[in-house]
């Protein structure tokens, strides 16, 4: 079974940092991409960042570019989201998602990700 398990959320003050982790196992369908999403009050689910695993290319939405960084431990199938200079607007439940890599636009559109983790809460005050 495909599984994603997130961890690393917490409560921090504005300007602080957190590192989220996502362990991804069980996917055997070829190339794939992964993304981080967040659910915030009044905004719904928003795609935050994505990575094409085959090429390593990354994508970030404007509001987090320069503050958030994706990285991977390929040996352990772990995707990290390093979040710096956190703002109250970053508060939300963060989810890790995965999908087949159908090309750059399919991954960076931040839609149609069929595999999800359970989420980890990030609160910035």
Our measurement of the CA-to-CA distance between the termini, rounded to an integer number of angstroms, reads: 37 Å
Count of helical regions:
1
SSE string: EEEEEEEEEHEE
Largest sheet: 7 strands, mixed
Number of extended strands: 11
SS strand fraction: over 45%
Low-confidence stretches: none
How would you portray this structure in words?
With 125 residues, the protein is mainly β. Helices cover 4% and strands 52% of the residues. The protein contains one helix and eleven strands, in the order βββββββββαββ. The chain has one helix at residues 104-108; strands at residues 3-7, 10-12, 18-25, 32-40, 44-52, 58-60, 68-73, 78-83, 92-100, 115-116, 120-124. The strands form two sheets. Strands 2, 4, 5, 6, 9, 10 and 11 form a seven-stranded mixed β-sheet that branches. Strands 1-3-8-7 form a four-stranded antiparallel β-sheet, with no helix packed on it. The mean pLDDT is 94.
Fill in the keyword field for this structure.
mainly beta; 4-stranded antiparallel beta sheet; 125 residues; 7-stranded mixed beta sheet; globular
What is the secondary structure topology, with strand pairs?
Elements: E1 3-7, E2 10-12, E3 18-25, E4 32-40, E5 44-52, E6 58-60, E7 68-73, E8 78-83, E9 92-100, H1 104-108, E10 115-116, E11 120-124
Parallel strand pairs: 2-11
Antiparallel strand pairs: 1-3, 3-8, 4-5, 4-9, 5-6, 7-8, 9-10, 9-11
